[in-house]
Write a structure and sequence with these properties.
The complex is a heterodimer of chains A (464) and B (53). In chain A, helix 8 packs across helix 9, helix 12 packs across helix 13 and helix 17 packs antiparallel against helix 19. Chain A has 19 helices and 5 strands. Chain A is mainly alpha-helical. Chain A is globular, with a radius of gyration of 23 Å. The longest helix of chain A is centred in the C-terminal third of the chain and has 31 residues. Chain B has a domain of 33 residues. In chain B, 74% of the residues lie in helices and 0% in strands. Chain B has 2 helices and no strands. Chain B is rod-shaped, with a radius of gyration of 23 Å. Classes of the chains: A mainly alpha (464), B mainly alpha (53). The interface between A and B is medium-sized, with 23 and 16 residues.
């Protein structure tokens, strides 16, 4: 375990007072009671307005000012550059190289949680945005005009980000480690992928404009930005302010492809959790068929995992669409298309819950490495000890297996209750009668119970 | 007696019980779905009766 930084399967639980499936029953009861409480007591929409209040002008200037943006952007560029350098020139041992833990754990898992609490904290640190804006400013200074851009095809919306999100996770869990067997991803591959992505992103920014691409196609901006819609702070007209938590989410999904982004998030986490547990037998079955058909073993493994990842996306999407379809059975219902877009944001807390539940222990363990030996000896070749932590090790007893399980269950239940709350609130905005609105949410309750039980099953099967 | 344990193990399906644990996770979903269907059916019948009357 100590040498496998991406072995997501967690420690075996040994001291739970009741069987794991009873937690799924209890979580379902919590959701049903929450649903009834919402139906009885929540009769007016409360999240449709942001209730935005500006913070003090001094604080706002300090955070949003151009020097602050230049400083944070420069930090982002430096960290990206260093991660790429470490990947290219550091050790090939994944657990000793700064690049992998920094990209796939610290950033990939840290920013969603920070964003969900505070707001869009990635935006000022986004290295590609910083480079794109600097290049745009340089062009304007030389040419005397702002760079011209091609009009972005609005129908495409956030689909590039959804596909990019799937590709990023695919790189880690399929290309890098299919079925728990390392087949490809090493720090060098990660660095090459980061370089290729940087070139692609800067090209797209040059083509469509920096902010346009960050809003729609840049995977990390869209992904972290999605979670930031739940957060407390936001920037409006260049001013930092507070808003009602969750309220910004109600406007997020209006662009095409937004639902695909959040569904991709849930699906990829589900796949990562299921590939060595719930789906293991099915994956082995298909893998054997492909291998017996004469396919190269590595290709067969990757193809099998890819098929199951896509199936996860389709499955999660189908469950969501069934919930939306169920709403149509209630009188005075809006169109299916409006409902499909209008309720997509209710899945954001679920995506966050899946992320926390699935990766909590990985994050706790790997961040010890990040802030000790990976920071002191980032290349991992034993030549540096910058902060005196190069010989540190990960303490796997820092959090018990039972504590991990309770965090996982708590995250899943809280995420789904928030999802139910957002869905109920949106229904109140769509249906004139609050009784119809509550009735319309019966099927969303089923969706939430299904996602909760599925998530707990994945965790229990993965942990067992 | 020594030969009986393997025979019993092969006869009883308990060894494969773990493969069926997912059923316990589906039950709450089924209960909610059945509840929704029954409730929807009752509401429909109520509306029909209201329409007749």
């Amino acid at each position: 375990m100590s040498w496998l930084p991406f072995a997501h399967a967690l420690l075996a639980r040994q001291d739970l007072p009741v069987p794991a499936w009873l937690f799924a029953w209890a979580a379902s009861i919590v959701l049903i009671v929450s649903f009834l409480a919402l139906a009885a007591a929540w009769r007016k929409p409360r999240f449709e307005q942001l209730h935005w209040r500006p913070l003090g002008a001094g604080l706002s200037r300090a955070v949003v000012s151009l020097p602050a943006q230049i400083a944070t952007g420069a930090i982002g560029v430096l960290l990206l550059g260093f991660a790429i350098y470490a990947g290219l020139h550091g050790t090939e041992a994944p657990d000793r190289n700064f690049a992998l833990t920094f990209i796939f754990v610290t950033c990939w898992l840290g920013f969603p949680v920070l964003s969900a609490i505070l707001g869009d904290v990635f935006r000022p640190f986004n290295p590609w945005r910083a480079v794109g804006r600097a290049a745009g400013a340089g062009f304007a200074a030389v040419a005397g005009r702002r760079p011209a851009h091609v009009e972005y095809p609005e129908k495409v919306g956030r689909w590039p980000a959804a596909i990019g999100l799937m590709a990023f996770v695919w790189l880690e869990v399929v290309y890098g480690a299919s079925g728990g067997v390392a087949v490809g991803l090493n720090p060098h591959s990660a660095a090459v992928a980061a370089s290729v992505y940087s070139v692609y992103t800067l090209a797209m920014m040059a083509l469509f404009g920096v902010e346009k691409w960050c809003e729609r196609g840049e995977v990390f901006s869209v992904y972290f930005g999605m979670f930031s819609q739940l957060g407390y702070f936001g920037v409006q007209d260049g001013r930092l302010g507070r808003r009602r938590p969750l309220s910004a989410a109600t406007r997020w999904a209006t662009l095409p492809g937004s639902a695909a982004v959040v569904i991709a998030s849930i699906a990829t986490t589900s796949f990562d959790g299921a590939q060595e547990g719930a789906f293991k037998s099915a994956i082995e079955w298909l893998f054997e068929r492909l291998a017996n058909a004469g396919m190269d073993l590595t290709t067969a493994l990757r193809l099998t995992d890819t098929v199951f990842m896509v199936l996860c996306f389709l499955g999660v999407g189908l469950v969501y669409l069934l919930g939306v379809r169920g709403m149509r059975s209630v009188a005075h219902s809006p169109s299916f298309a409006k409902l499909r877009v209008g309720f997509a944001h209710t899945l954001i807390p679920i995506a966050l819950a899946y992320l926390v539940a699935h990766y909590f222990s990985l994050f706790v363990f790997q961040e010890q490495a990040q802030f000790t030996y990976l920071l002191s000896d980032p290349l991992g070749n034993g030549t540096t000890d910058l902060f005196g932590g190069a010989s540190a090790t990960i303490d796997y007893t820092v959090v018990s297996a039972a504590a991990i399980w309770y965090v996982q269950v708590g995250a899943l239940v809280a995420g789904h209750v928030l999802g139910l709350t957002l869905a109920h609130d949106r229904a109140l905005a769509y249906w004139p009668d609050y009784r119809d609105a509550s009735r319309s949410q019966y099927w969303m309750l089923a969706v939430m119970v299904a996602f909760t039980c599925f998530g707990l099953y994945l965790l229990s099967a993965g942990n067992g | 007696m020594r030969g009986r344990a393997p025979i019993l193990a092969s006869m009883l399906p308990l060894a494969h019980l773990g493969h069926w644990l997912w059923v316990f996770y589906v039950i709450p979903v089924l209960i909610v779905v059945v509840g929704i269907l029954v409730s929807g059916h009752k509401a429909k019948r109520r509306e029909e009766r209201g329409g007749d009357g």
